[in-house]
Amino acid sequence: MASNSWGVISDMCGVSCVEEQHGGFASVSMGENQTKVHPPVSVVLATLLYCAELVSAAVLISMYHKSGDVSWMGLTIFFMLFPAVLTQLTLTFVHRDVGRDRPLVLLLHLLLLGPIIRCFEALMLYCKAGKMEDSYVTISKRTFLKKGQKTERELHIGQVERNLATHRNAFERTSVIQAFLGSTPQLTLQLYATIQERYILNGRLALMIISLLSIIYGALVCNVLAIKIRYDEYKVRLRPVAYICMIVWRGLEIATRVTALVLFSTALTRWVILVGVLNFLFFFFLPWVKLWCKKIGPTGDVEKDFSKLGTTIVLCLFTLLFACINVFCWSAVQLDLAHNDLIEKRQNWFQLAMYYSGRFVENLLLITLWYFFKSDFYEYVCAPLLAVQLLICYSLAVLFMLLFYEFCHPFRSLFQHNVHNCLQCICCRKKSARRQEANSPSYSRAATLVRASREHLELLRPYHPEDSALQGERITAFDEDMMEAA
Question: Membrane spanning segments where (predicted)?
């Protein structure tokens, strides 16, 4: 894997494409093919979510400190600092600031304030975009898909847009890390603490809401990332309806999953650790088992400067993030460590169906076990109604997922098989099986038909005198031959 392996995860901006360079950069005058510089909305949104979660966690930690809840305080500090540190490392790695003379930026990263300065830089670049012209641009070819028709265009990407793309890439990576290595366990912890202590703190409620928003945004980024990786030569354009559908899908899926785990943990605390560990280990070792089955090793290097040990560490971090995502929701991409891009680019409907079927069964088992072993705290809660609501919410999440792939996916016209094809195939199989069962005769009836087959054929055949004469001659000849043989 050459340096484009990290580039796969960075193909989340509007500039990522299959480039056809003409001598690297070309001096081109601004024209119709000049790309429009879009505002860094994703950068600002990711920064706001990061700061809001950091501040709300700090306020809640101070409340835990005052009340003497050492265990809740320690876990909250860990789930606040761990993703924050990874966020600083990711931003530093993407922008390659380690070997550059930028002491102020590095100091802010050490103070966990790196996203703020990066967001400020992106906004300054966007403000300068309309005031200066780029004399050197990158020429790249993109394919536009409109009403099923493909059209290729050359795009001239300026230096400002390339720099903004770097910021978008970095912040979209950090959004996924923040969501599934920090916000998800933080939300689970605070919901569990609320049920155990049987009261809701205002600071805890604020942190849970912000964490849920961060998780939904991270899952949304995973979906967009999966689309842009699989169709990297196309210009991706998502309609507002597609975003709404994905937000509802991901929100219901994650909220139901977290609630099921927390309810199960309140009834069988020790067993939930086993459930979480088994889930994590399964998804962590799944890409490595696939690689072992192919009898090959990881392809190339993740970065040219990395040793084999460094490459292994980076791949382990990839699989760690992949496992954490799949414990709570569908990751939308599947790892392939034997591929140069680390990602399977084909849409695997079988894996999607197996994941949601297995997750539905697992949630059903968790909710059922909670119902039978629940504590006295739920005496004033209608437990059957709550269990049914959770299952309905997860079913609705699956329904919105199917609606997205069927109607809202920007490249649904390129699918060889879509959702309705799979449903038609299942229905056709059921109908054919029913017809075979209805048309298959019983054993006794089949034997009767075999014995009476000649009589039925003779009765059904039309009468012809010539045929009867020929038949009589054949019978007479047959009798004479039998007499001679005797």
Answer: 41-61, 73-94, 106-126, 205-229, 271-289, 309-333, 353-373, 385-405
Phi/psi for 76 (5° steps) reads -65, -40
Q: Contact at 8 Å (CB) between 137 and 26?
A: yes
For residue 449, which amino acid is it? L
Counting every residue written for the chain, the total comes to 486
pLDDT at 141: 66
Q: Which of 375, 182, 183, 364 is nearest to 260 (CA)?
A: 364
Report angle CA 283, 43, 335 to the nearest 5 degrees: 20
Q: What percent of the chain has pLDDT over 70?
A: 70
Question: Taking a C-beta distance cutoff of 8 angstroms, is the pair 263, 221 a contact?
Answer: no
CA distance 426 to 424: 5
Measured over the CA atoms of residue 450, residue 456, residue 457 and residue 460, the dihedral's sign is negative
Q: In what order do the strands lie in the sheet with 26-27?
A: 26-27, 136-146, 149-157
Strand 136-146 and strand 26-27: pairing? antiparallel
Q: 6-39 in b/e burial notation, b at 16+ Cβ within 10 A?
A: bebbbbbbbbbbeeeeeeeeeebeeeeebbebbe
Residue 23 scores a pLDDT above 80: no
9, pLDDT greater than 50: no
**Main-chain dihedrals φ then ψ at residue 187, nearest 5 degrees:** -65, -40
If one counts every other C-beta atom within 10 angstroms of the C-beta of residue 218, the result is 27
| Rounded CA separation 119/42 (Å) | 10
Q: What is the DSSP letter of 413?
A: G
Task: Assign 35 a pLDDT band (cuts: 50, 70, 90).
Answer: low
Q: What is the dihedral of CA 446, 447, 449, 455, to 10 degrees?
A: 170
| Angle between helix 70-95 and helix 103-110 axes, rounded to 10 deg | 160
Tell me the two tokens of residue 446.
């089949």
3-state secondary structure of 329: coil
- Give the tens place of pLDDT for each residue, 218-245: 999 999 988 888 887 777 788 899 999 9
Burial state string for 227-263 with b = 16 or more CB within 10 A and e = fewer than 16: bbbbbbebbbeeeeebeebbbbbbbbbbbbbbbbbbb
Confidence of residue 431 (pLDDT cuts 50, 70, 90): low
- pLDDT at res. 12: 38
With beta carbons less than 8 A apart as the criterion, state whether 174 and 9 touch: no
DSSP for residue 341: T
Grouping H, G, I as helix, E, B as strand and the rest as coil, residue 264 is helix
With a cut of 50, say whether residue 452 has pLDDT above it: no
Q: Which residues contact 19 (CB under 8 A, 6 or more apart)?
A: 138, 139, 140, 141
